[in-house]
Amino acid sequence: MTKQEARYLAGTIRNRLSDFYREKASQVILEKVQQMEEYQNAEVIFCYVSTEDEVNTWPVIGHALEHGKKVGVPVCIGDGIMEVREITSFSQLKKGAYGIMEPDSSCRKIEKEEIQLALIPCVSADQTGRRLGHGAGYYDRYLADTRFVKAALCWGELMMDRIPVDELDIRMDRVISEKEDCE
Ligand SMILES: Nc1nc2c(c(=O)[nH]1)N(C=O)[C@@H](CNc1ccc(C(=O)N[C@@H](CCC(=O)O)C(=O)O)cc1)CN2
Ligand SMILES: Nc1ncnc2c1ncn2[C@@H]1O[C@H](COP(=O)(O)OP(=O)(O)OP(=O)(O)O)[C@@H](O)[C@H]1O
What we know:
With 183 residues, this protein is α/β, with parallel strands linked by helices. The chain has a single domain, classed as Rossmann fold (3-Layer(aba) Sandwich). Helices cover 27% and strands 24% of the residues. It has five helices and eleven strands, in the order αααβαβββββββαβββ. The chain has a seven-stranded mixed β-sheet. Strands 4-5 form a two-stranded antiparallel ribbon. A two-stranded antiparallel ribbon has the order 7-8. The protein starts with a helix and ends with a strand. The structure holds the ligand Nc1nc2c(c(=O)[nH]1)N(C=O)[C@@H](CNc1ccc(C(=O)N[C@@H](CCC(=O)O)C(=O)O)cc1)CN2 and adenosine-5'-triphosphate. The site of adenosine-5'-triphosphate has 15 residues, from α5.
């Protein structure tokens, strides 16, 4: 299977997922994140701001902010290039590229060295940490020279036995789904 085929397959499955499933699974994934030692110890996390087609990260961002963690979220600044900016409140988010909520320009840039844990979106993933994104390369480029813990959040229904990857794809340290964790 090619990446394109895997993306298409995941998309057709995703479109059939009920709101009930999405909410329940997001809730279980949120609890798993909160139980992670790396999350509890992290002072600075990098987390995507989810759309309706992704595991919901709004509660985890809220939890992190309430517990005094610094939270950085992605902002697209060019073709396949993104940076991470700190938000201290949801009110700093504005609709940006691809309809995704992004931090406004008043938000401070967070350097890669500051981050201890990243919660990463995916279209699909496998148990061994191979991850499929939208194909624009934003995450693979950004993650290429980073050392923080990388955890992809994935609907269990969208996980595949084996995701096709190439040498530029960054391996996740964990894939967290409502079904099984992978270390
Ligand atoms: N919440 C969130 N933020 C993110 C990403 C992401 O995947 N999710 N990104 C990760 O790169 C970057 C934005 N990049 C994106 C690149 C392409 C598409 C895109 O093509 N979306 C299509 C669906 C494609 C598909 O079916 O896979 C669309 O919206 O129609 C979306 C985001 C940075 N911020
Ligand atoms: N470190 C990198 N430097 C330059 N180009 C890269 C890098 N990583 C990925 N790319 C390029 O980006 C494009 C998209 O890559 P790929 O299909 O792996 O994206 P993806 O993992 O699905 O998406 P994303 O990383 O945005 O979630 C490819 O053309 C790939 O060669």
